[in-house]
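Hi there,

I know you've been waiting on this one. I reran it after we fixed the sequence typo, so this is the corrected version. Both the input and the resulting structure follow.
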Amino acid sequence: MAVSDEVRAMCEASFAAEEVSLALRVLNTYEGEETDRVHRAAVASSQGSLHQLASWICGVTPPLDNFFWLAGGVEPGATDRQAFAAKWLSGFYDKNRLVRQDEAGPSRPEP
């Protein structure tokens, strides 16, 4: 399903101009149920990070209620438990992200 106009507008507001097309491509990789709702939740949860967006989209698994509960942690009115879970998961995604070789810094010498 194509990305809706509302989700496209969310991407334009959340991501840098040069990243919007990439964000839309990431969103198009999701082909499950409730596509528009999943897209909206993932964009909101990613907080403008392409890596986060890809991680949130890759993390969508049935039952979707779990995903929507976690994604709700960044929304106003979220419970403390939701906010903690969303923050923890985002931190996990950041910690485990793949880093380009030029970002990785010098490699350790072989022993």
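Quick highlight: The helical segments are 5-14, 20-27, 35-46, 50-58, 64-71, 80-95, 101-104.

Best,
R. S.
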